[in-house]
Model the fold of this input.
Amino acid sequence: MDFIRNFPFISIVLTLFSGAVCSVLPGRAARWVNTAVITVSGVLSALVLRYVLITGECFVYMMGHFPAPWGNEIRAGVLEAAMALFFCIIMLLSMWGGRKKLVEEVEESRHNLYYVLVNLLLCSLLALVYTNDLFTAYVFVEINTIAACGLIMVRQIGRTLAAAARYMIMSLVGSGLLLIGLCMLYDLTGHLLMSNIQESVRGILADGTYAIPLVITIALMVVGLAIKSALFPFHAWLPDAYGYSTISSAAILSSLASKGYIFLLIKIIYRVIGFDVFNNTHIINVLFVFGLLAMIFGSLSAIKEGGIRRMIAFSSVAQVGYIYMGIGLGTEAGMIAAVYHIFAHAAGKALLFIAVIGLTDVSGFSRRFIDQTGAGYRNKIAGIGFTVGSLSMVGVPIFAGFISKILFAQAAIRNTGKLLPTMIVLAVSTILNAIYFMKTVIRIYTPSPDSKFTGIALKEEKLYALAIVLFVALNIALGMSSQPVVNAIQTGLTMFG
Amino acid sequence: MSRKKTEQEYRKTFAFRFFRWLNAEEDRYLDKVEMHPQEPYVETEEDIRRRQREKNALLNKLYGRKKSKSVRYLELFYKGACIVFCGILIYLLLLTVSYLPPIGVADRPVNNEVSRRYIEEGLDETGAVNIVSGMILDYRAFDTLGESHVLFVATVTVLILLRADHKKKERSSAGEEMAYSLEEAEINDRNYEPKNDAILQMAACILVPIIIIFGIYVILNGHLGPGGGFSGGAIIGAGLILYLNAFGFQKTQRFFTEKTYKWVSFGSLSFYCIAKSYSFYTGANHLENIIPKGTPGAILSSGLILPLNIAVGLVVACTMYAFYVMFRKGGF
Done:
């Protein structure tokens, strides 16, 4: 049983190693390796999750012969294991759903390189989730950034190249701020290990010696990670990156890559700075305000948007705003809602991206709304997937999005100062969401008898259909049996403290 | 008494050539220095019009000549706000720096038990005389494992972006020159070959072996003195780039193609991964590590550090060279 303690380490190293292996394999073999590695990592994470749920306590794993402040270590609790499992599931389904499109859009000779990037991205996500050391986190943030950049531009058209360049610049600004913050934190505390830093931070606050640099340091790290996860004013790179890259990349980037940074931020808030310390700074209010702004402006941009994929991309901006709003509430309940929304948004947004490609493919590869008329009849499974994803994003009961909205509202009630703005913006944003998603759903189910486009039969793309069905099932499962998930998140957050 | 030489013999001596060179009667390097073919610059009326149009568009964009007044004011405000914001940021950061712990004082927070153990027990625990090598390849090897994969993923991304997939031109036979049109020459740097820049080639002949041997020395001595895989690999990569510049792809392709790059970096990365996984696994499960540390100071010592330095060095050298090749036109 104790052998399970090795599994987080094995899953990280396995994905890292498979990246190097894929670089020498031909495309088809690399695809098999990729599928196998994601599956194995998922199974290992599930076993770790079961283990920590049974034992009821987290464990640290020494990477090497030297104990923690000298060597590296990783740490696994309920939340880490659940996040890793969820990332693996979403990544596997996204790869399945976009496989056909990848073959069409990307040159044969670059396929194996694409799988190298996907494996390394998964590795960096797993490492970000499990790490207990800030510098290790930074190293894997670098891998995440570069791999994401490659995923955007693997389909080489002008829009994606420009988007990749923009992403690179914005993301490096974020990395730079994070690195400066890290260096100053090391200067103030003399540690890189999360638990030791927290101890030192408490000491600093008690002495009152370095209060000003500490606040600036926290601000730098938080802003850096917010930029990297596309919080509202820093989302300029996002629409083209998600709207024009190959569809697996779009699904993975929107639902996983940015979520890895948010999870790292939550980890830093809990395990490095300390939740109560963070709540006493004004940075939390800044996050709250920008979260609210993102919810409104992201949705407004999505309504204005003329192309269906860019619309979904802008919807991501709004959803990231929800998560930051939850963090900004500054209560345990708000944090639970934010973490739950990471799950809900990842499941829903990946589904939407995978579904929308089926719709545009039966509409003459056009992204304009007018051409999507009746697309839900021409590609039935994609139509169902899109409808479920939209309903989940809008927040209709039995789907995942509903639960996260309820959790946000409940969390807001317990915070009197921020109750009114949260409720108003939540309501407005829900209506705006409904406007653009329902508009699209109605459009795809409006019959167009004189359509010039032909439909596609289900049996022509079995893997795609399977991916959509599993995504739908995942959304419904998250929405129907939310209590165990919420309980697990709560246990996980308690283990963080 | 010097013996009188015949005219024939005298012509063969060094002095004869030296004086001819001194009197500028002969230049060995004339016609041997790299010259690139240049297209004669002819401008048609269409070109002039286009140039004028582009210039006007640029000026309009720069000075906002066609924009309304309010838009121009808004842009002015935008620029002003940017400057103010940057000023505030600079002020805050400088303020922070002034409050940081002073440098050179013994009781700074960074002088704690972590660095003390690295300095005092690093030699015993890792077997490496160079503490930095001991830290990055033994104490904190997981970070370095990630760092070497950062290089790897960067090369993969550049390969995706820049690898030219066009068919290789069929050369009729090895020695024969193909006639390339100017457009073809523009696409691929290879078409300027063979290189015949005699000065560069002479310099490269002298420098490249020294550079590469020095790089190997830095890598192999990483655990004994300053150096290690990253710096040594960068030196070797620089040597390879110089060699490529002097002699062109025809020479380097004999020993370094894309396949070589692929297998060398795969080999060293997987060796690193497997070796370190073994060490992580034994360390975490408190098993005996069978790799001997050796006597500190000897070339074969400090356990895994030397092989890992070699692996990192190979990855870095390949990455440097691959980057250079990719950013030239034509690729590997």
